[in-house]
Design goal:
Blueprint: H1 2-17, H2 23-34, H3 42-54, H4 59-71, H5 75-88, H6 90-105, H7 108-121, H8 134-144, H9 148-166, H10 173-186, H11 189-202, H12 208-220, H13 224-239, H14 257-268
Helix pairs in contact: 1-3, 2-3, 3-4, 4-5, 5-6, 6-7, 7-8, 8-9, 8-10, 9-10, 10-11, 10-12, 11-12, 12-13, 13-14
């Protein structure tokens, strides 16, 4: 079925682009056509495959073809095509591959290797794949490896730079959340609370995650009544949609309503 779709789409595109255009110009129009479709859609996939038949040097088209396979759950094709994107434009796409290793495969070591490589490729610039600095992403990757010292070091570096450049209220709330989780898991409850409170301060006091961890700290510190109050607030936030989550994949340390209800039961008992 996919082969026939590709065949007819290729004929259609060839008919449209037939004429005095160069292959590179035809490839640009084919990719522009493909961008009208959702990543993972067969038409998106076929349009970029056709564009690459015309011009195999376009790194972004290799990346687009790769991601459409990734989102359709065909990982062996994702990797070989993404590597082609990096071959043609490593500065742009190597840190992005680290992002995909991090979230789609939970391969923290390979993710960190790609983020580190970006420092070598752009020594005077901090890359920001998917809108966050590689320091932020390294903080998450090291949290996944339970290397809390490095995780906090990178989060603190990220937060410090964002605060210096734009102001503390500009820092993405999840940076405070994950920094707090890393401190929490390492047993540094004072710094954990500092970060959870920052998230709540700049997030209009709405975060099931931050309140969930605060309730656990209060429980450890034998502040049971405070813990009961805040876990009830966490449940309200969760039901209102204020919890950390991601599209396509489960986020790192994602919480669920069952987690909140279990902690509430433990506090009652």
């Amino acid at each position: 079925m996919e082969k026939s779709q590709k065949f007819y789409l290729s004929l259609f595109l060839a008919f449209i682009f037939f004429g005095c255009q160069t292959n590179q110009e035809k490839a640009i129009e084919a990719s522009e056509f493909g961008f009208h479709f959702y990543q993972g859609d067969p038409t998106h996939m076929n349009a970029f495959a056709y564009a690459l038949e015309l011009d195999s040097t376009n790194a972004e088209n290799w990346r687009e073809l790769s991601v459409t396979y990734l989102k359709r759950g065909i990982p062996h094709n994702w990797k070989k095509y993404y590597d082609k994107a990096i071959e043609h434009d490593p500065i742009t796409w190597q840190p992005w591959r680290g992002y995909l290793y991090l979230w789609f495969y939970r391969d923290y070591k390979k993710a960190i290797a790609d983020f580190n490589a970006s420092d070598t490729l752009t020594p005077n610039f901090i890359d920001a794949p998917q809108g966050h600095s590689v320091d932020y992403w390294r903080g998450i990757a090291y949290l996944g490896l339970k290397n809390y010292e490095k995780s906090n070091w990178y989060f603190e570096k990220h937060i410090k730079k964002e605060t210096k450049d734009f102001g503390e209220d500009y820092v993405d709330l999840t940076a405070f959340l994950y920094n707090g989780i890393s401190y929490f898991e390492s047993g540094d409850y004072e710094k954990a609370l500092l970060n959870f409170n920052k998230q709540l301060e700049y997030g209009k006091n709405l975060s099931a995650d931050a309140k969930f961890y605060k309730a656990q700290i209060f429980r450890i510190e034998n502040k049971t009544e405070e813990a009961k109050i805040i876990i009830n607030s966490a449940i309200e936030d969760f039901n209102a949609g204020y919890f950390n989550n991601r599209n396509y994949v489960e986020t790192l340390r994602q919480i669920y309503l069952e987690d909140l209800n279990d902690l509430k039961k433990q506090l009652i008992n």
